[in-house]
Specification:
Layout (H helix, E strand, L loop, with lengths): L3 H7 L6 E4 L3 E5 L9 E5 L11 H21 L4 E5 L10 E6 L16 H16 L2
Antiparallel strand pairs: 1-2, 2-3, 3-5, 4-5
Helix pairs in contact: 2-3
Length: 133
């Protein structure tokens, strides 16, 4: 059975895409900790990030780096934090979160409630910076 992320990649479930290549897909987290909170996933369905082969894991990190740089340009912050938890969806993914302080990465923090228009504007801002790379 396909994961929710596979359904998003296939276009069966809508998402706020920010970047894509032939192997990876990046889209906004719909329960973000900060504006610009993005998920990076491999298009190939793999449950655990460390089940990816070395080349695929390295390529995913390089893709995530480009997305993180686009996020930082679109949403100025101290850094873009990276988290890999992997318990909530059985599809490998990296969280990229614009942060000002370490406590911004605490996943039990309250999530932002954003409108469709806000999500679209955030995605467009990151897409713009991604395309300028």
């Amino acid at each position: 059975m396909a994961t929710i992320f596979s359904k998003i990649i296939a276009g069966d479930i809508p998402s706020y895409k920010v970047a894509e290549n032939e192997h990876f897909y990046a889209f906004l987290d719909i329960n973000p900790l900060a504006k610009g909170h993005t998920l990076v996933v491999p298009k190939r369905e793999v449950d655990y990030i460390f089940d990816l082969d070395d080349e695929e894991l390295a390529a995913m990190q390089v893709f995530a780096k480009g997305v993180a740089l686009a996020i930082q340009q679109a949403f100025p912050c101290q850094k873009v934090g990276q988290a890999v938890i992997g318990l909530e969806v059985p599809h490998a993914h990296i969280h990229l979160i614009p942060i000002q302080r370490e406590s911004d990465m605490i996943f039990s923090n309250p999530k932002l409630k954003l409108t469709d228009e806000e999500f679209k504007a955030i995605a467009a801002a990151i897409q713009q910076k991604w395309s300028e790379r």
